[in-house]
Specification:
Oligomer: single chain
Number of helices: 4
Strand order of the largest sheet: 5-4-3-12
Order of helices and strands: EEEEEHEEEEEEHEHH
Largest sheet: 4 strands, mixed
Radius of gyration: 18 Å
Structural class: alpha+beta
Helix content: 25-40%
């Protein structure tokens, strides 16, 4: 019997630098677990590792969803500000994924997005524009591509932050699997949250939360 090969991606922990391979996240999934080397809580987002706060493990599922959304929204905002999306061209066919056009339902084979990148495609069937996010196709208005680059970044961020909010509200979190380990559970009890607000949290508020306060989904995730 042929063995089913699970597609893997190479990732690097931004905290300890440990490199390894993890299963390619399924469409719409946000795998969460611990780095096998430094035990920091991590999420696989845009096919790379994003650090999460250790305190998230002691939160309720609803608060976990909100906290993960806040962290990933900040990361997404930075990616869009850095224009980390690209009008996709031809690429190596050895690393392809299948997505469904959110406009016409056509099945498409597209290159696996590089870490941190947000590819934009035109569907060959309906000629509408889609963006590959969480390894699936998200509908994008063609008019966005006619805007200035800064307005493109803002509009694409708005579209993707709303999509991300819906995914976090539905708790589509999985587990990060390590090639040499069966899996690393997310839910643990590390006791109540303690300690005053750190300078890092203050900086995060001033640098991100305050900027995104007019984003409806982001506001709701913070204040309920």
């Amino acid at each position: 019997m042929d063995m089913i090969r699970i597609p893997m991606i190479a990732v690097t922990c931004p905290h300890c630098g440990d490199k390894g391979n993890v299963p390619l996240p399924k469409a719409g999934m946000i795998p969460v677990g611990k780095c096998p080397r430094c035990s920091k809580v991590i999420a696989i987002f845009l096919n790379q590792i994003v650090l999460l706060d250790q305190k998230i493990l002691s939160c309720t599922p609803i608060d976990q969803a909100r906290d993960i959304y806040r962290v990933l929204t900040r990361f997404l905002y930075q990616r869009c500000q850095e224009l980390a999306f690209t009008r996709a061209r031809h690429a190596e066919k050895s690393r392809m994924i299948t997505v469904t056009c959110s406009h016409c339902g056509e099945k498409l084979m597209v290159p696996l997005p590089k870490a941190g990148m947000i590819p934009v495609y035109e569907c060959p069937e309906c000629h509408e524009v889609i963006i590959i996010f969480l390894n699936q196709a998200v509908r994008l208005d063609k008019k966005i591509l006619k805007l200035s680059t800064s307005d493109q970044a803002h509009n694409i961020y708005q579209v993707l932050s709303r999509f991300l909010y819906q995914r976090c509200e539905q708790l589509p979190f999985g587990q990060v699997l390590h090639p040499t380990q069966p899996g690393m559970p997310l839910c643990q009890n590390e006791g109540p949250l303690k300690g005053p607000i750190s300078q890092c949290e203050v900086d995060a508020f001033l640098g991100t939360d305050l900027i995104l306060i007019d984003n409806k989904e982001y506001f709701k995730s913070v204040f309920g």
